Amino acid sequence: MPQPYFSPLLSRLEWLDHAFLPAGERPPEEAIYNHQRHSATVVLASDALPVKSREADGLIATDNRPVAVYTADCLPVLIADTQTQQVAAVHAGLSGALKGVVINAIHRLGERGASPANLMIAIGPSIGPCCYELGKTQLTQMQREDPLNLTGMMHFTERQPANDRAVRAQASGTTQGVWFDLPLLVKRMAMREGVPEAQIEMSRICTYCMAEAQASYRRNTHFSHGYQQRFSWIRRR
């Protein structure tokens, strides 16, 4: 049976619980999560009930109930502030990341007393640069329409990186595009907001070629193997 992934960084904090769950496993029954739309919207958990009543992609806890996001290949981002003991969960696909959902989560935590210098950020399993191909036309459009000035932080290569930890075949190129590193972009965005690099952790688990078989939406479009949502959650004890 696939096992949850626990962030070594967040596991050092004795005042919280968290997990990046395998595909198909449900979060705690009391967990709160939104109706995700690849947006930059971040809301408070107290404003997000009943579950999935709000369209938002970031959620900040307001009590001890878990806050959660569901993903397939997008980035699940769990955030903890060691000073105020606030926690947040963010769903950051490419579209939401470019719109600033992670930046907005950091800012909203700041409005509630958190400081970027005290944030711990864990980026969970997601599609990696070994399997995430973007068409060159899409990349050019992203660089042209760049209101958050992210172009200089984007890392991509024309040659597909080999993943020696893959447990199944990596994605095959279909667009003669580039291989894009979305987790690294989000890490760099957080660093630009003032979060120390040592306090940002990337799992480096690719949902396409390393995680359980039904973890990847993109892999399903290539092979029709099916996919299931992957929940990630965090809460204060």
Description of the structure:
The strands form three sheets. A six-stranded mixed sheet has the order 2-3-6-5-7-11. Strands 1-12-4 form a three-stranded antiparallel sheet, with no helix packed on it. The chain is globular, with a radius of gyration of 17 Å. It has helices at residues 8-11, 94-99, 101-111, 136-144, 182-192, 217-223, and strands spanning 16-20, 42-44, 58-60, 67-71, 75-81, 87-92, 119-123, 133-134, 156-157, 178-180, 200-202, 230-236. The two termini are 27 Å apart. It has 237 residues and is an alpha+beta fold.
What is the H-and-E element order? Answer: HEEEEEEHHEEHEEHEHE
Report the helical percentage: 10-25%
What is the CA-based Rg, rounded?
17 Å
Low-pLDDT regions: none
Shape annotation: globular
Number of strands: 12
What fraction of residues sit in β-strands?
Answer: 15-25%
Reported for the largest beta sheet, the result is: 6 strands, mixed
Distance between the termini: 27 Å
Averaged pLDDT, please?
96
Structural class: alpha+beta
How are the strands of the largest sheet arranged?
2-3-6-5-7-11
Number of DSSP helices? 6
